[in-house]
């Protein structure tokens, strides 16, 4: 793989699609009854809290209080960021129960935090496009100096099999949302452009669903936001939220979407 190709794939892996499905004016001014619950959001690598603004807005419209955990992955290990996340929970969460909705690298920070004692009151967890094993792309880029400079120690961790073997699953009910609008340059299986669909599954998950979006576009989808709300409220995804989106787009591949035993 040439340096130019490596740089291209690094850019795609970190930044993904730039298309944003903005909340409608109706969604932004919608009045919802306050659930009393808090949702803590964690964004993906190199993205910033603003990358989850669309999802954040929709969750607030559903009546949740939201908090965004800010982190910079470049110079810190995932364990260091997990400790910062725990401190953030202790200092900022004031309404209970609280839930966690994390995207991409944020899912790994949350799982690393589960090795420690969390503040009481955790409800449910939604993991969006979780990288539960190194992809072939990451294995190829692991020794690339540009990738090493750009992603720092956390970039080396996510490219290591050993790192994932030691990560615990969430200690509460959790669900996973995967995407299947990917690429065939480095991944031959169904994927979201960065990780394979199959690799998103985790033992013990209460629900799992595949949506027709690429890795970074998942968090901007209106129906992904609705799926998050339905799981946080009822412990399962409302698949009626999916039917309209599936009908409007390309017909999806068939997946077994039942939860793990």
Q: How would you sum up this structure in a few lines?
A:
The protein has 261 residues and is an alpha/beta fold. It has helices spanning 3-15, 25-29, 53-61, 78-92, 105-113, 136-141, 145-157, 161-165, 222-234, 240-248; strands spanning 38-42, 65-68, 98-103, 122-128, 174-179, 207-211. The chain starts with a helix and ends in a 13-residue tail after the last helix.
Structure description:
This protein has 261 residues and is of the alpha/beta class. The chain has a domain at 36-129 and 161-179 and 199-247: Rossmann fold (3-Layer(aba) Sandwich). Helices cover 37% and strands 13% of the residues. The chain contains ten helices and six strands, in the order ααβαβαβαβαααββαα. The protein has helices spanning 3-15, 25-29, 53-61, 78-92, 105-113, 136-141, 145-157, 161-165, 222-234, 240-248; strands at 38-42, 65-68, 98-103, 122-128, 174-179, 207-211. It has a six-stranded parallel β-sheet with strand order 2-1-3-4-5-6, with helices on both faces. The longest helix is centred in the N-terminal third of the chain and has 15 residues, at 78-92. It is globular, with a radius of gyration of 17 Å. The termini are far apart. Mean pLDDT is 82; it is low at 1-33 and 247-252.
């Amino acid at each position: 793989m040439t340096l130019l190709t490596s740089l291209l794939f690094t850019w795609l892996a970190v930044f993904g699609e730039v298309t944003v499905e903005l909340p409608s004016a109706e969604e932004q001014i919608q009045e919802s009854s306050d659930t009393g619950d808090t949702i803590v959001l964690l964004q993906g690598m190199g993205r910033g809290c603003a990358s989850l603004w669309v999802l954040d807005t929709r969750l607030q419209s559903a009546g949740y209080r939201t908090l965004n955990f800010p982190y910079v992955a470049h110079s810190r290990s995932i364990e260091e960021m997990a400790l910062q996340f725990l401190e953030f929970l202790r200092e900022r969460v004031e309404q209970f129960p609280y839930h966690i909705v994390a995207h991409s690298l944020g899912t790994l920070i949350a799982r690393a935090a589960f090795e420690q004692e969390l503040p009481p009151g955790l409800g449910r967890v939604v993991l969006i496009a979780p990288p539960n094993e190194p992809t072939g792309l990451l294995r190829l880029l692991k020794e690339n100096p540009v990738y090493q400079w750009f992603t720092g120690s956390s970039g080396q961790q996510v490219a290591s099999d050993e790192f994932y073997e030691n990560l615990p699953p969430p200690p509460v009910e959790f669900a996973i949302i995967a995407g299947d609008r990917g690429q065939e340059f480095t991944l031959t299986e169904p994927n979201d452009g960065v990780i394979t669909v199959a690799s998103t599954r985790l033992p013990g998950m209460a629900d799992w669903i595949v949506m027709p979006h690429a890795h970074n576009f998942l968090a901007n989808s209106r129906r992904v936001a609705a799926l998050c709300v339905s799981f946080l409220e009822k412990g399962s995804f409302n698949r009626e939220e999916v039917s309209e989106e599936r009908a409007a787009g390309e017909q999806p591949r068939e997946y077994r979407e039942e939860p793990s035993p």
